[in-house]
Write a structure and sequence with these properties.
The complex is a heterodimer. By secondary structure, chain A is mainly β. Chain A is built from no helices and 11 strands. In chain A, a hairpin with a 2-residue loop joins strand 5 and strand 6. Chain B is built from no helices and 11 strands. The chains are: A mainly beta, B mainly beta.
Amino acid sequence: DTGVSQDPRHKITKRGQNVTFRCDPISEHNRLYWYRQTLGQGPEFLTYFQNEAQLEKSRLLSDRFSAERPKGSFSTLEIQRTEQGDSAMYLCASSSQGPGELFFGEGSRLTVL
Amino acid sequence: EDKVVQSPLSLVVHEGDTVTLNCSYEVTNFRSLLWYKQEKKAPTFLFMLTSSGIEKKSGRLSSILDKKELFSILNITATQTGDSAIYLCAVGMEYGNKLVFGAGTILRVKS
């Protein structure tokens, strides 16, 4: 499968714990995006990388959130000191040009108890 | 603030019906409007529209953009149960790299 892959697909954690999600984009795509989706809402933009550079961050991304793409390939999204309001689907997407067609992964669903 | 509004929020139709989904937007520096279909997994791309009045078609699905009135419609003819999904509209801006999504329209097609 040469699509966007995300891991883990599901994560249940207790409030206050740290979690990390990984995204492997389509290999020839240099643009990588993280979005968050809650029930009944469309995806909300979190952050964008072009190669290894993080070029745009939403104000939704509090200081508990950090994202990296160290070698311009895979990316990680870490949430520190999780809160119940962080429960959502975290979607990763990649593209070769933007902001056009994005190819989404199947998401990492986070449940904070 | 950039805004994308979809209507209706949900609808239920019978197989064979034709449906029209609406998307209106208020954004700065519009560049493109995209439609995605989301079943239980990742959103999958349907159309990207950048020019007014030019219909894009793919099988039973078609879409058109009106940049003067700031809206787009997605038509699905001869609906099938496999069309049941959430249909998302998103807008890309000339400057910046994000897409702004609407909340989606939930379509359920009954057999």
